[in-house]
């Protein structure tokens, strides 16, 4: 996981009116906390932040603050449900060598056996990993898996040094048979309508 550097400014104003003003100026209200420090209220450049997290929500951010750099991880990112802009960001301080618990997206690779359908049950898995070595995703190979096969969290390959936090028995993906349409319904749909006898 690479580090992304972005500028951050301290702020002393709060409230909805202030938040609206800074959003109109292309900025996002944010709070930085962790490691026993008092919460710091910041503003981030919206465009910079959007570009930074394109690599995933678990991107390590190097915040360029007036009093020096700080490594951080986006703990909570709130978007407006309709207008799709950032409303607020919670950031947590991380240190080099520190281990963190994060939810990592699961990505399926390969193709299961012909005539099967792939049912994804878990889209993310929670792992503990060194802060500067967070993977972008966890690849799960389904290549050639036969109908009836399952992949549990315990069977997913993790990066070196990572520990699975999710329940090992969590079902990640199952290979099932392709469901066919009910033949009775098909027959009913295909049958011609009854002809009404002609009146005498």
């Amino acid at each position: 996981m690479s580090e992304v550097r972005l500028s951050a400014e301290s702020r002393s104003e709060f409230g909805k009116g202030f938040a609206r003003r800074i959003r109109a100026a292309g900025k996002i209200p944010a709070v930085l906390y962790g490691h026993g420090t008092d919460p710091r209220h910041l503003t981030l450049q919206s465009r910079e932040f959007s570009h930074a997290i394109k690599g995933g929500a678990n991107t390590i951010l190097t915040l360029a603050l007036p009093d020096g750099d700080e490594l951080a991880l986006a703990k909570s990112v709130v978007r407006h449900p309709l207008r799709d802009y950032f409303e607020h960001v919670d950031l947590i301080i991380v240190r080099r060598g520190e281990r963190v618990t994060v939810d990592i997206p699961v990505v399926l690779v390969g193709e299961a056996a012909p005539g099967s359908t792939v049912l994804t049950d878990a889209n993310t898995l929670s792992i503990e990993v060194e802060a500067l070595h967070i993977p972008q995703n966890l690849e799960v190979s389904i290549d050639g898996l036969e109908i009836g096969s399952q992949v549990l969290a315990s069977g997913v390959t993790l990066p070196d040094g990572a520990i699975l936090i999710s329940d090992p028995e969590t079902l990640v993906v199952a290979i099932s048979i392709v469901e066919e349409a009910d033949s009775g319904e098909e027959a009913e749909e295909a049958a011609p309508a009854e002809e009404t006898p002609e009146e005498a």
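The chain has two domains: 3-95, 101-180. Confidence is low (pLDDT under 50) at residues 183-187, 196-200.
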